[in-house]
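Translate structure to sequence.
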């Protein structure tokens, strides 16, 4: 592992699968937090103080508070594709590698996006609660009417790997695909996805279904708020599988309550795991507990990729998915 005979010290911030722990213990001295809940920032700071590498999840904030005592830390490996929990500038200043796990969760997360879209459009959650409460007494022609997905227009905001995977799924439903992105995609990718680039405003006005798949960065905070929701059709749905904070949840609640949009589906929340109370009170929303990548196959792949990143960095090799790549140069 290293140039001397001593094993590196690794901190694992959250409970992982046994296979991963076995891999790490074979090559390193492991400090393991065998819990499903995150540590407090002060406890995390203490655990990072005497290790060479750390395996964390998207819920661990790696910032000035938690890095204050981490004098020997060389790499922090995130078991997540997003990395808004990392202060990348600070990590780079401290010469600490930061890594993530893209690609391996693309299709599973795209499936989840479509699941939320279909459930929201067809009022699945609302109708199930209605049925369980004993309200279904007879079939009626106008009962629990939703909106169509097939041959409608989907607007994808954030056209990276997951956004493109959603676009290909949409084509199977005969949907028209429009998208908004920080940068327009190359023509060959647009052709494969049969996607048309539009402005943010045109997408919101045109799309029957709006899917958020963008990264969370400061400029995307409340990217969808009162103004944006007012542009959407009253028959439109909004789905967020990106990150909490991209949607102004208070504005969303108001839009749903006043039928400014038809419905919504959320897998991520601004204060998660705490849920803004008003979200629980509106019927025309589908809520999931951040399970976009939650299949055993995908979560195993994420864990192993994060370990690959971690061990490569400790071996003075370039991690497969290095975020602050300027450090390698």
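Result:
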């Amino acid at each position: 592992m290293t140039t001397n005979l001593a094993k590196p010290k690794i901190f694992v911030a959250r409970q992982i699968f046994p296979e991963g722990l076995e891999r790490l213990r074979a090559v390193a001295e492991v400090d393991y937090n065998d819990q499903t809940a995150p540590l407090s920032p002060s406890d995390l700071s203490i655990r990072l103080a005497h290790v060479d590498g750390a395996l964390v999840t998207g819920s661990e904030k790696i910032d000035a508070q938690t890095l204050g005592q981490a004098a020997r830390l060389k790499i922090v490996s995130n078991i997540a594709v997003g990395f808004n929990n990392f202060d990348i500038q600070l990590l780079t200043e401290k010469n600490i590698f930061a890594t993530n796990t893209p690609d391996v969760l693309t299709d599973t997360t795209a499936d989840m996006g479509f699941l939320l879209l279909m459930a929201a459009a067809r009022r699945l959650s609302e109708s199930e609660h209605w049925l369980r409460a004993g309200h279904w007494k007879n079939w009626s022609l106008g009962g629990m009417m939703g909106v169509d997905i097939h041959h409608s227009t989907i607007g994808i905001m954030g056209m990276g790997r997951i956004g493109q995977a959603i676009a290909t799924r949409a084509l199977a439903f005969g949907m028209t695909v429009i998208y908004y992105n920080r940068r327009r995609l190359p023509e060959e990718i647009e052709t494969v996805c049969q996607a048309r680039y539009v402005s943010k405003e045109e997408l919101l006005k045109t799309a029957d279904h709006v899917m958020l798949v963008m990264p969370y960065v400061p400029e995307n905070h409340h990217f969808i708020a009162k103004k944006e929701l007012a542009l959407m059709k009253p028959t439109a749905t909004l789905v967020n599988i990106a990150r909490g904070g991209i949607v102004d949840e208070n504005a969303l609640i108001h839009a749903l309550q006043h039928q400014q949009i038809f419905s919504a589906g959320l897998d991520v929340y601004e204060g998660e795991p705490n849920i803004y109370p008003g979200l629980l009170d509106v019927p025309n929303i589908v809520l999931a507990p951040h399970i976009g990548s939650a299949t055993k196959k995908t979560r195993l792949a994420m864990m192993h990729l994060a370990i690959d990143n971690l061990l490569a960095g400790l071996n003075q090799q370039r991690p497969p998915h290095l975020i602050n790549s300027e450090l390698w140069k």
